[in-house]
């Protein structure tokens, strides 16, 4: 599914919808060039779970943990990751537990180590704003896309959507 995001408010709104649909679980991989809005989308996901504080990309610390309403959410930024094995040293296997929501910026830097995502979102710059391409890789991911498809159709922001065969 490809979605039009005309401005920052639309990105945060998409993130909120994603957060609600994910229900505090899963692995979401965010791709796109610098400035495409990966952290903005993450802010929306965290807002869906009640986080009202600042959301900064953990570029130097690699991961920012959040404990919200009994849920564990982890925001990873792998941009400065030197080697995927570094994720092992920070306890990455424990952080990717099934009952946590893991949002990963720059997942290509963790290739070969990271588990398969439930959902991959690729953000791209456009006119106006940005666009998001969403792709599911699991039953959870497909369920999230089905929910989003229904909600986003009402907003008329879907650019294209794959048809079920």
Task: Note down, in words, how this protein is organized.
The protein has an eight-stranded mixed sheet. It has 165 residues and is of the alpha/beta class. Strand 3 and strand 4 form a beta hairpin. The radius of gyration is 15 Å and the shape is globular. The longest helix has 17 residues, at 139-155. Helix 1 packs across helix 2 (38-48). It has helices spanning 8-22, 38-48, 86-89, 92-95, 139-155; strands at 2-5, 26-31, 63-68, 71-77, 100-105, 119-125, 130-136, 158-160.
**SSE order:** EHEHEEHHEEEHE
Class by alpha and beta content: alpha/beta
Runs with pLDDT <50, length 5+?
Answer: none
- Say how many strands there are: 8
Rg, Cα atoms, Å: 15 Å
Q: Give the overall shape.
A: globular
Tell me the major beta sheet: 8 strands, mixed
The overall pLDDT, averaged over residues, is 89
Strand order of the biggest β-sheet: 3-4-5-2-6-7-1-8
- How much helix, percentage-wise, in residues? 25-40%
Task: Please give the alpha-carbon distance between the first and last residues.
Answer: 15 Å
Number of helices: 5
